[in-house]
Amino acid sequence: MSKPPRLTLPSDARAYRLTTARGDFAVHEAGAPERGTALLVPGFTGSKEDFIGLLEPLAAAGYRVVAVDGRGQHETPGPREESAYALEELARDVLAQAAVLGGAGPLHLLGHSLGGLVARAAVLRDAAPFASLTLMSSGPGAISEEQQARTKLLVAALEAMREDMAGVWAAMRSYDPEDAVPDAPELEEFLRGRWLATVPEQLIATGRVLVSEPDRVDGLAAVDLPKMVVSGEVDYAWPVPLLDDMADRLGARRVVVAGAEHSPNAENPQATARALASFWASVDHR
């Protein structure tokens, strides 16, 4: 899971609820749309806080940045029905968010990890609202076999213990290596609180997506939209060579962020923000 570099918002950012035709979504927003707007979609077990490190530098580059909690994630409520979290439903949510955020210049879409699969599904459904698509640490289909095994165990635990999310958290953390536990108690408290606030059916349904999603790269390559693939130097969910190949197939810009692994947005946000701003600027001048 992504670990935000900090938990406090920049002084010029705000937290609010974005009202759309498909419900209200908890968001963090910073900046003004001088050069456009960026919609940031988080990954599995994630939330809008995973993008806190990007808000200030992207706002300084001239972009309105909106990071969202998806349906059933953290501070956005959702129903206790697995069907509500099918990939197509989540894609429709992104399109509803885009309908509200668009209009003030180009709208750039970014999805991290699972969020990349959601963003891809949204673009495949309707690319018209977007000026570009960035897939961050998100691959062509299902996650690696090793991570599939881990995710299947988690989904099985959630199916059996969905009314005891605290118990699932404790069991999950007991399998983590020592260096996976944050040094800062407040960050560990946040991660646990975010887990407890996330709807278990959301985690079950999206976990199944991660282990079963087919390769849809050819379909995405046919969409006339500038694309970028960003990752860290190491990725356990989708190996870096696989992401290199996906970028080639897409004809996408490829950026590897130094010193980062699966969450460059949190692990090296300054370098990640520079790469994003450079890509979006190139799109602005098409």
From TrEMBL:
Signal sequence extent: none
Keywords, in A-Z order: Hydrolase
SUPFAM superfamilies cross-referenced by the UniProt entry: alpha/beta-Hydrolases (SSF53474)
MF annotations from Gene Ontology: triacylglycerol lipase activity
Keyword Hydrolase: yes
GO biological process, one term: glycerolipid catabolic process
Domain spans labelled AB hydrolase-1: 39-173
Any Pfam family matching the protein: Abhydrolase_1
Name of the protein: Alpha/beta hydrolase
Annotated organism of origin: Streptomyces globosus
